[in-house]
Amino acid sequence: MNYKTIKLAVASVALTLVCVGLSSCGVRDENTPGVEYMPDMYRSPSVENYGWHVLDGDTLQNAMLPVKGTIARGYMPYTYENNAAGYEAAGANLKNPLDMTHRAMYEKDGEALFGKFCVHCHGATGGGDGKVGLKLPGPPPAYDGALKDLPEGKIFHSITYGKNSMGSHASQLSTEERWKLVCYVQKLQGPKGGADSTKQIAAVATPTTAHAAAGGHH
Ligand code: HEC
């Protein structure tokens, strides 16, 4: 092999490389990446949310609801229905599944959640005098007033499904978080026995009494 042939060979290899390089730039469809070197770096094996996949010859959409009648691992379905009968049944039968030896801890967690999700309507002490609550057509009743004897099942049921102007919190709060909130609401209910509904009426009817009285006496 003489010097000239080597030069020619090198030149043709270089030319080929330039051609390959240019052809990868001039791809017509701008959505294709052109020539892919090590394509496994481009094409991730992950399943895309709204794509399709093939399983045993069936083409299935990725975002599918669970098969009817099945229960996802680690998930307990809530069986009380969102109606008056379900509400009463929850009140009678539904009990807090959390281990009550840790009650103080749950109340603390519940208090933090209450500050994020509930306080603007229910007020800091659950008196129904939150800034948003007072603007509602029917402000929330006081936990230690009309709601003093509300059983834990009903508290959980109402947090889960909502009630009148209170929306459902099932999508924002896990089951465990809702039960922690039940612990905290119970703390705000105070000692059981003797619903004091007059307290609630006072808070709802004259929310600014404290200010008015303070102003009037000066
Ligand atoms: C948009 C304002 C609003 C928010 C936010 C809100 N509530 Fe309420 N809540 C209400 C109103 C209004 C009522 C009274 C509903 C009725 O009986 O008409 C109520 C009622 C309740 C009751 C009594 C339910 C019953 O069965 O009588 C409980 C318990 C309760 N709320 C807990 C909570 C907790 C815990 C949170 C936070 C996760 C929360 N609420 C968030 C407005 C709100």
Protein model, in words:
- The chain has a two-stranded antiparallel sheet with strand order 1-2.
- The chain has helices at 3-25, 84-93, 103-117, 119-122, 152-161, 175-189, 197-205, 209-216, and strands spanning 52-55, 58-61.
- A hairpin with a 2-residue loop joins strand 1 (52-55) and strand 2 (58-61).
- The protein has a domain at 84-208: Cytochrome c-like domain (Cytochrome Bc1 Complex, Chain D, domain 2), CATH 1.10.760.10.
- It is mainly alpha-helical.
- Residues 195-218 have low confidence and may be disordered.
- Helix 2 crosses helix 5 and helix 3 (103-117) packs across helix 6.
- The radius of gyration is 32 Å and the shape is elongated.
- Heme C binds at residues 117-118, 121-122, 132-133, 136, 138, 140-141, 147, 150, 154-155, 158-159, 163-166, 169, 181, 185.
